[in-house]
Design goal:
Elements: E1 4-10, E2 19-25, E3 30-35, E4 39-46, E5 51-59, E6 65-71, H1 76-79, H2 83-89, E7 94-99, E8 103-108, E9 114-119, E10 126-132, E11 139-146, H3 149-154, E12 158-166, E13 171-181, E14 186-193, E15 202-207, E16 212-216, E17 221-224, E18 239-243, E19 246-250, E20 254-259, E21 264-270, E22 287-293, E23 309-317, E24 322-330, E25 333-342, E26 352-360, E27 363-371, E28 381-388, E29 401-402, E30 404-410, H4 424-436, E31 450-457, E32 463-470, E33 475-480, E34 501-506, E35 513-520, E36 532-538, E37 543-547, E38 553-557, E39 564-568, E40 581-586, E41 591-595, E42 600-605, E43 614-618, E44 623-629, E45 641-647, E46 653-658, H5 660-674, E47 686-687, H6 710-716, E48 720-721, E49 730-731, H7 738-741, E50 747-750, E51 756-762, H8 763-766, E52 790-791, E53 797-798, H9 800-819, H10 826-834, E54 845-851, E55 857-860, H11 864-873, H12 875-895, H13 900-917, H14 926-930, H15 938-951, H16 963-969, H17 977-988, H18 994-1017, H19 1024-1028, H20 1032-1049, H21 1058-1071, H22 1078-1087, H23 1089-1097, H24 1101-1115, H25 1132-1148, ...
Parallel strand pairs: 25-29
Antiparallel strand pairs: 1-51, 1-54, 2-3, 3-4, 4-5, 5-55, 6-7, 7-8, 8-9, 10-11, 11-12, 12-13, 14-15, 15-16, 16-17, 18-19, 19-20, 20-21, 22-23, 23-24, 24-25, 26-27, 27-28, 28-30, 31-32, 32-33, 33-34, 35-36, 35-47, 36-37, 37-38, 39-40, 40-41, 41-42, 43-44, 44-45, 45-46, 48-49, 50-51, 52-53, ...
Amino acid sequence: MKCRSVACIWSGTPPPHKVTAAAVINHPLTLYTGGSNGSIFCWSISESNSEIKPVAMLCGHAAPIADLAICYPVIASQLGITDQLLRTSGNSVALVSACTDGVLCVWSRTSAHCRRRRKLPPWVGSPSIIQTLSSNLRYVCVGCNFIDSVTLSDHVPLKCSIVVVDTYTLSIVHTIFHGNLSIGPVKYMAVVSHNEEFENLSLLLADSFGRTQLVSKSEGSHQDGEIGDNMIEEEHVLSITSCRNIVAFVSKDHCVFRLLAANIKVGEISLTDNLFLFEGDPTQLHMLGGMFLENDNDEITLNNLEDAFLGSFALWNNRGSAIVYQVSYQDGIFKCKPIYKIPASSRPLDVSLSICFIQLSSYLIRIESICFHLEEPSQWRPHVVLWSLHQQHDESEKLYEQCKMLAVGDSFTGWVSRFNSRNQNDLLEDANAIQAHDNRDNLVHVGQTASSTLVIAGNLNLPYAVVYGFVNGNIETIRFNYFQGPGSLPASPRPDVSSHLTRQTFSGHTGAVLCLAAHHMVGPVNGYSFSHVLISGSMDFTIRIWDLDTGHPIIVMHHHVGPIHQIILPPARTERPWSDCFISVGEDLCVALVSLESLRVERMFPGHPNYPAKVVWDGGRGYIACLCCNSSRTSDANAIDELYIWDVKTGARERVLRGTASHSMFDHFCKSISMNTFSGTPLDGNISVSALLLPVVEDCASNFEQVPSTSSLSSRFTNITEANSKKTARIAYPATPFILQSKKHPIKCSCPFPGIATLSFDLASLMFPSPKPEPTTEDSGKTLNPDHIILDDNGTSTDPSDWIRSLEEYLIQFSLSFLHLWGVDHDLDMLLVSEMKLKRPENFIVASGLPGDNGSLTLTFPGSNAILELWKSSSEFSAMRSLTMVALAQHMISLSHTNSAASSALAAFYTRNFLDKAADIKPPSLQLLVSFWQDESEHVRMAARSAFHCSASRTIPLPLCSQKASDHAKLIRSLSEIEENEHEISNTAKPSENGSNSELENRISQAEESNLLSWLESYEVQDWISCVGGTSQDAMASHIIVAAALAIWYPSLVKSDLASVVVHPLMKLVMAMNEKYSSTAAELLAEGMDSTWKSCIGSEIPRLISDIFFQVECVSGPTPNATGQRPTVPASIREILVETLLPSLAMADLMAFLNVIESQIWSTASDSPVHLVSLMTLIRVVRGYPRNVAPYLDKVVNFILQTMDPGNSVMRRSCLNRSKIALKEVVRVFPMVALNETSTKLAVGDAVGDVNNACIRVYDMQSVAKIKVLDASGPPGLPPLLSGASENAVTTLISTLSFSPDGEGLIAFSENGLMIRWWSLGSVWWEKLSRNFSPVQCTKLIFVPPWEGFSPNSSRSSIMASITNHDKSAISKENANKTTSHADSLKLVIQNLDLSYRLEWVGDRKVLLTRHGQQLGVFPL
């Protein structure tokens, strides 16, 4: 499981966003807009405060967004509800997005993260439109095009693909059409007819010229159906929309309505006839789009659905003015009447404006994209206005009513006011710049817009600087100097300043900086002294190399004749001299290899047909792969791709692959590179290229088990020069610290879009231990290398283990500084700064984030409201962030006890206080928390359990909630029709008819059980799975764990029959031997055995014990060989099974356990580990529950003696030591079991039972055989004295035993009767030969007088009291309770059993009786 927390650092300007697609969710009110740069904005709409705010940015695409659609990855039938309830409840609703690069993403509305990210196969083409299938909301229909310049100019047949995609897996389930269309590029697609099996699926396709084509899957062919009496091919159609049987085609000056089935024109709206409705210059106005509005009041005419229609239609122009018409068609008559009007946008005419409208419930949203500088496409900003359609129009007074504007929002209002990374003077200058552009919506100055971003990770992959490249050509480096002081961590050179943040500016470019990279030199540089360089590529066709130590420029290179978009650094394991080189990719279709040692171009790779958008460098094999398009196209759609493979050493072109093969080979390159890089991605090193451009290979982090080569170490981990200080010190670091041997880096840096830097904190890597570095094989037997000595600022040496511990502490401080929610609890903030030495990142715009599938990210916008919105909407984010913060706080305590107060306060804040302060915060997901209960780190395990208990009562899953908990939490029970019926039946049922009520209750119970089982077995409804990288098996197991834990710890909050339903899945999970969950399941089964599970599985305990022994046998079995044997069960589970679960099962049914272990002697091998486990379990049971074992002492001792049988030498040899320990433990705990001084004889007396059948068995320890049976049934010669007691009464028998010093006699004391008896164990030779074990009577009987405080009762009646008639009340009480069952009597006797009696010999013929260590008397024999 992966627990990653993301911190986002924003630049001083908002990101650009030109809207290309939009989608809405009605419950809750949410707007999504997709941009031309691949970003998606999530807008929160609130009617109360009249404001629309962007709350999150969804980063999963690197190409323009083609379309957005709403889907439900889990269909309604799986939740047991209707489609209508699924739509209105908002549960499981998701956004599916597609970009022109072929990447699809599914974004969950509830968890706010990317559930699935996947790229369509190359043969599908470039997606252009997405349509959700109304019959099955889980599936979407995706239309894709193959467009190039030849197709657009010559009108040749267009190749198109239409596929049905499952939004849960993003896999193609059906191909509707794949071939050439008779129309142009698909601009519109409507589902005409379909069913759930996709057998009769028909689609209507339309191009930008109004031509249509009907594609039917059932016929396996397509039908041409061009529409165009008044519409000619040269006339461009701007928008196409449909509603039921009407299709509307919107062009610049009119809108035509046609019947879909009859293929005839029914009406038209002309711009010339309605020009007075639109504001502005008529010469500059034209229609832009239209859409049908959903209105519950509109009805279809009664005659026929095919030739009648009534509805609302919105039509808007290029300046944002819109008219809502009421459109009707009946009996061949078309009517169109304006009812509402939306005024035009108030933007200046010289401003570029892109307009679109979308309906949200009973509102209409106008989405504007604004740009003041056409030459700067990065300046597009969105503006959203919400209009109400609730007004009632008056037909007599006005032609139409103007809609009411309810809310306005954009992505940049107040942005700079939240930017505190500069001093007050800089803020004033920014404010003045904004004031100058106040009439243009407060756009920040163009010179401050970031065009590229880079996070420089220093040595040990720790981030120490953020670099911004701006549109005006400037470069700014912002460093967080968090690691300072003695023994400071290795980082890039930094100025000697008092603040923990410094800035550095690089000026020289005359165009926008498009790409950045930072490199630490491996080898020496001829004629130069720099070691850290910054490389920048710009729109001015130049590449500049800067010295990061001094800030001075080194060289300007002019080998490109076009803008430079990418700089690629050499990956890990790249040999010299290529390890000090970089690759530059420009729009001039050339790729160049530049050496930083010689500062010249070493190789040029020309001849690409187009700009190579994707370039990777395989340093191990010495190849460069460039993926580019083969045609110069004018659209963003996908063309035929080509892959060029170049040899770095020779500069020759090795191979060119086209089509699908090019993508397959490119993916292979990326995977091969990812396996050998530190970051686990194809892009290694400090570069600004977005990782979203390339395929992400999961779990391909560095496989380095050893330290890299010497050259790599010299460049990354040793001899760091401190610049900008008066004296230069050489600092050396351990060659093999633990973090360098880790496969994962604790902090990963990325820049998905310009102006955005993200820090991803991996909890598993942050929890690494701090062992003392061990010398490698090469260093063994040698003296300590000077490179292993750490020197602080004063030149004194430091222990390497202390340096590693300091590294851990600094990592946690850095992580907490960026992940903590500052400003909520001011007292806690002051405590963290003063005691834990955290440094609040006040000079950065820091926001939160949530990782998604395959490298996707959900980033909140700056501001506390947007960050809190993620806490309020996503229980997955709440769980992951709380788990991370609590685990780091606990780890901080283990590193430094001086931080205990601050760490404890921090843990309390994220487990309890934060939820109490903000009532609307979503509690953590219980399923996600239990997935970390068996984490490798103890701190993570403790944090997950603490968070679970603190939030369990707040977030019990709805199927598990009891009625009491549901009423208390005001949960909506209308999501399940079954639950509604149960509620109605329970309210209407009368208790008069007992028979019908019992049948009704059974029916309800069966329905609840069915619902519970369905929830336990479900796996598709969980968003947290993709958050932590889990599988469907994890989902089902977590459901079982959550249900079992709640049934044990919170039985009053869950349904009463939950325990009986979940116990069998819990047992199956234990037996599944799953490394993640079986141990947890075993712990829960053991913890709740007595209180919860025993009543449910009493008869199945013997079988479960046998299954555990079988698993123990598998655990200790031989390891599989190379022939492919089944691997053994994980040995880590054995400890839980043996030490926790097995003892609890043994105590739940001790008799069954003894029978099972006795049968294992004959059914398993003599040297089987099962026998040792049985002995260990017996020892634990004897120590933990001695009174419960007392009735079965004979079977316990017999089993121990069987394992010591000299006749079975194999078993005796393997079990003898453990058997002796078990036997001595039994003798120590139970006074009625005794060994003589020479350990040659063993006596076992009955502790409880029938007084008439009591006996003592004596064993010879050498032969492990029974030699005598002593009669302890009652006092000899006085049988009438016991007539008052019940003949079958269960009582205590033998309280303690002791052998005589010579071992030839045995003395026993019985509390029941207060008597001491003596037996002589001597026997003549013929008795030794006999196998007759007739009970031997005692030779002496001594009555013990009652001591002070002794109170006889029914269970401890005294014979002397019976003789003196002082126990009449006890006898009468026993006679009254004769009907008491044997089990109840045995339970009462066991509860009152006293195991503290002891007999000690104080002379040759005297014994001392003690109880609880106090003397009761000395008795002569």
